[in-house]
Write a structure and sequence with these properties.
elongated
Length: about 300
């Protein structure tokens, strides 16, 4: 069965898009297309013209990682386009550098649209980098949590006592699936991040420290589970309004590896009524701290 030549389509489209002048290629003004010729791309990437033709026409379907890297560099692809070219070649995209704690403007905008819901933003290693006022109203001011390095995983695996002995937030937040399942989800997600950032020395040291200091983490890390943490069902033991049953959703905005965590309660439920009450109290006082209205800070 014939398959679409995604690699060749992308390669040709990007070749015709690139300005020769941007690549240091001299032009004589008599060009029929504005982009690079095949022979120019071949020269810039160190390949033969015939091989470039085969790739575009789909007669060569399995370029090596070195070939894809050379083409991406010659075409001046941004990271998202480079990764797409690797996937079109049925190759894993190259590993990235350190875990980013930068929050793009569009993520700020996303969080602002979720402003009526408790929302926080975490880096890929689960370091808390920002939160809104409703997050503080619902689970307390994160500055009071006492997390090592501002990291949720470090808090889950505190070396003293069991997982339920010390509240994760300002007050207890319980997973309906249980502490063990919640811990396993976070460790599996952290393993995905560690594989994507193998050269991040800080992350490697963080994982090594937890493996040496916490038997629970060491056991879960050794089981090999790797998956994104996408959500949970929780009960927040709020000191003012009592228990609040909520859904936790983890959103990963495209083009980032940030985790946007938000709590919601179903319409016309007791949980929704309690969150509405906290929202009204916040609006009346406007004293709940927010870290999302201006530049996103780094915690820890």
């Amino acid at each position: 069965m014939a398959t679409t030549n995604h690699f060749g389509i992308a390669l040709r489209g990007w070749r015709e898009r690139v300005s020769p002048g941007d690549c240091g290629v001299a032009t004589d003004g008599g060009r029929r297309i504005p982009g690079l010729r095949r022979e120019e791309l071949a020269r810039l990437s160190g390949l033969s013209v015939d091989y470039v033709v085969q790739l575009e026409q789909g007669r060569a379907r399995h370029p090596s990682a070195q070939v894809v890297t050379a083409l991406a560099r010659a075409l001046r692809l941004d990271p998202a386009e480079r990764d797409h070219l690797f996937r079109c070649a049925r190759l894993a995209p190259p590993a990235t550098g350190n875990v980013s704690r930068q929050v793009p403007a569009r993520v700020h905008q996303l969080v602002n649209r979720l402003g009526d819901n408790p929302t926080a933003v975490f880096a890929a290693d689960w370091t808390l980098v920002g939160w809104n006022g409703m997050w503080s109203a619902t689970v307390g001011d994160p500055r009071t949590y006492g997390w090592d390095e501002g990291n949720l995983v470090a808090a889950m695996f505190r070396s003293r006592g069991g997982p339920a002995e010390v509240p994760i937030a300002a007050w207890p937040v319980r997973s309906w699936a249980g502490d063990e399942a919640e811990e396993e989800d976070l460790v599996a997600d952290l393993r995905v991040t560690a594989a994507a950032h193998p050269h991040d020395g800080r992350l490697a040291s963080f994982v090594d420290h937890l493996r040496r200091s916490n038997p629970r983490f060491k056991r879960l890390w050794s089981n090999g589970s790797a998956r994104a943490h996408v959500g949970d069902r929780k009960t927040i033991e709020h000191p003012l309004v009592g228990d609040i049953d909520v859904d936790l959703d983890v959103l990963m905005p495209a083009g980032t590896d940030l985790r946007v965590v938000t709590y919601t309660a179903g319409a016309e439920t007791t949980g929704a009524e309690k969150i509405d009450a906290l929202r009204a109290a916040r609006d009346a006082s406007r004293t709940s701290p927010s870290r999302l209205n201006s530049e996103m800070p780094k915690v820890g």
